[in-house]
Specification:
With about 190 residues, the protein is an alpha+beta fold. The protein is about 55% helix and about 10% strand. The chain has a three-stranded antiparallel sheet with strand order 1-2-3, covered by helices on one side.
Length: about 190
């Protein structure tokens, strides 16, 4: 269950009780009526996801130091999940592919996993990653800097998406779940 608290400094704080632990994460927002309405709307979403057991701490508090603690608790609470988590399967996939690649390419793929894929998909079951998740991720990679240039080139974005598509396709085949595999790479 989640609640909202107002800290002594006037900032809004979320107070969550999950898996027998208390998680508190503050916001930068002052407790104004507008900000409180936004916080209450977010709180409704959080409580709904908690009730459905689909809540992911990193979705709401991606910069929090408590994400790792939550994920450990979540995994110990649900060890019987039918399909593996993305980070477990991705690391297994990488170990299986290493023999096929030069050490320099292994480093490139490991960097892609550590920098882009594991932070985004790490604590999601491979069977729960949808095409919409991948599309949003791809869109986030095409963000524009303040100077009007893109942060990453199309070639770089496609290089990041290739391991993701390979991991999801192999996981779908091995664990027998549907995977559209139709991620459109960036070409312009």
């Amino acid at each position: 269950m989640a609640h909202i608290r107002i800290r002594p400094n006037g900032r809004i704080q979320y107070d969550l009780h999950l898996y027998g632990q208390r998680f508190r994460d503050g916001t930068k927002f002052m407790a104004t009526p507008v900000n409180l309405n936004k916080a209450h709307a977010t709180l409704k979403k959080i409580n709904a996801k908690i009730a459905l057991e689909t809540f992911q701490y990193r979705d709401y508090f991606p910069e929090s130091k408590k994400v790792a603690k939550f994920e450990v608790l979540q995994r110990t609470k649900h060890p019987d999940r039918l399909h593996p988590f993305f980070n477990d399967y991705a690391n297994e996939w990488l170990d299986r592919q290493k023999a096929k690649w030069k050490s320099s390419y292994q480093g490139i793929v490991l960097n892609i996993l550590d920098t882009y894929l594991l932070p985004e998909f790490g604590n999601i079951l491979v069977s729960e990653i949808t095409l919409a998740n991948v599309d949003y991720f791809r869109e986030s990679l095409t963000m524009i800097k303040k100077n009007g240039r893109r942060k990453l080139t199309n070639k770089c974005i496609n290089g990041i998406l290739w391991p993701l598509i390979a991991i999801l396709s192999l996981a779908a085949e091995e664990h027998d779940f549907p995977c559209s595999g139709r991620v459109i790479l960036v070409t312009h």
